Amino acid sequence: MTTDTIVVGAHARTTDTVLSTAARFAARLSARLVVVRVDDSRVPAEPDDGSGRGATVPLDPDEYDDVVADRSALEATVARLRTDVQITVDVRVLAGDPGKALARVAADTHAVMIVVGSSNGPAAGLKAALHGSTASFLMHHQLVPVLVVPVSEAWP
Fold this sequence. Notes:
By secondary structure, the protein is an alpha/beta fold. It contains five helices and seven strands; from the N terminus they run βαβββαβαβααβ.
């Protein structure tokens, strides 16, 4: 019997809400959860195999980033999920365009669903206007369902 896979995009500002929602779906479907963090300020240093283990370099060499701390925080959150929800969770940390990276992981794992958070705040609106949102890209370029989890307060 094959286990279904759910792919979830884990963004630093939306991780807890989005991951807990994806984990609940994975538990209900007895599915494996593949947590994908994509750093769009970095690019693969070598051809990316999608494993999340390849070397990356920053787009701006003067920009400070702490890839190790970011991965450690994500691993801590995932460890809580494994304990609290009792599901199988894999983690991949990739670089490049989030929509394309999530689509590639979904295709590679034969995912039955992709879960992402909604964009929020003025910076997200500007980024979406300039580049398009990850959720919108996935909804228009995927054959699997895309669940968009709201991560900000509802409008009054």
